[in-house]
């Protein structure tokens, strides 16, 4: 069964997020680091949290892996990806690991 790893970047008054760096550099690093273990990625840039409501997240990155073993292997190599976070944000990412059901 496919599994997903979602990384959510919450917005707070004390945080910032460099979208240019994230899209141009960080996501390329993710692809290079996770390599063949990664089936696909989808990044959603937060623009609103509803009608007339600010977005609660800067972005949500969804990475799909063939199975748990593939994700485990990818995450075992995640050191450079994790170290790069400080280069584009000071918010603390929230992780959600799940089974892909549709």
Explain this structure.
With 102 residues, the chain is an alpha+beta fold. Helices cover 29% and strands 30% of the residues. It has helices at residues 19-34, 68-75, 79-84; strands at 3-10, 38-45, 57-65, 94-99. It has a four-stranded antiparallel β-sheet.
Distance between the termini: 11 Å
In the predicted model, the low-confidence regions spanning at least 5 consecutive residues are none
For the largest beta-sheet, the strand count, sense and barrel status come to: 4 strands, antiparallel
Total strands: the figure is 4
Q: What is the overall shape?
A: globular
Mean pLDDT: 97
Helix/sheet category = alpha+beta
> H/E series, N to C?
EHEEHHE
